[in-house]
Amino acid sequence: MPFARARGLDDATVAPAAEPDAPASPGPDQDQDETASRDTGHPSNHDSSQTTSETLTSSAADESGRAVARAAARPRRGFRDWMPFLLVRAAHPRQAVLTALVLAGAAAVDGRPVREVGLVFGTVLVGQVILGWHNDLVDDAADRAHERSGKPIADGRLDAGNVWFALCCAVLLVVPLAIANGVTAGLCYLASVAVGMIGNVVLRRGLLSFLTWAIAFALYPAFLSYGGWGGGQHGAAPQPAMVALSALLGIGVHVLLALWGLVADNADGWTYLPLKLGLRLGATRLLVGASVYTAAVAIALAYVASQVGLRQ
After folding, report:
1. What are the CA-CA distances from residue 144 to residues 64, 136, 140, 154, 158 (Å)?
2. 242 CB burial (10 A radius; 0-12, 13-18, 19+)
3. For position 56, what pLDDT does the model report?
4. What is the predicted pLDDT for the residue at 39?
5. How far apart are CA 86 and CA 227, in angstroms?
6. Are 305 and 109 in contact (CB under 8 A)?
7. What's the pLDDT at 59?
8. How far apart are CA 90 and CA 156, in angstroms?
9. 161, 202 Cβ separation under 8 angstroms
10. Is 20 strand, coil or helix?
11. pLDDT (tens digit, 9 = 90+) per residue, 120-166?
């Protein structure tokens, strides 16, 4: 109907349009929506700030707790972690002191003055410390792999760079100490230390491992027989029998010292003399045999020295 269409058009035209900028007043439905929003767990701005603050506080507390736990778990550094003590530990101190005492005792039996006996002790002690440090530096990787105890370098308590520095300082000390025994005597002892260091690097894993030990010990009688006080030439050549027996003594000491590491050395594929003997004889019989052999050679050394003396 035309009338109906015209009226509808007029109503649409005349009807006032809603103002877009007029703010809508909140009605009861909106209040119910906000209430429902709060009830369903959606935080308001105030609640969000409070939650963030609580989260930060909790994180800080957790981090503080972890820091306290780490501090409690960290081992306390005591005397045993003191660097000088660790350096002594890495120097094989028992072997160093025993060797120095034996050679100083031999010098005393030979009738040397007390000051020369002390010089012999100090020279040999420093040289043995050098050999001990060098041995642990060379064996660092193996000691770590086998988790050997009593190895400050391998367990990380002692830095290898510090040990190298100490070793270089000891070398600078042992040279004048050795020469103070006399030029020939000093050169013999320095040669013995050099042979020992070479033995730490080469030959030690094969059948000729005993060779460097025999040479190093064979130089000890010359160190004593040519020894004196101050530079220059002193004494005379050693008795050949003393040199030969000292070389045999070095082989016995080599076997005895190697006994404690035979299992690890076998796992690493070493084929040196003590290991071959241990596989053939067994560790117990090898220990007994090496002890008897070393003692017999030491007795023979003492007997020959009492009969023919140290020098020719």
Report:
1. 34, 11, 6, 5, 13
2. buried
3. 46
4. 43
5. 33
6. yes
7. 56
8. 12
9. no
10. coil
11. 999 999 999 999 999 999 988 888 888 888 888 988 888 999 999 99
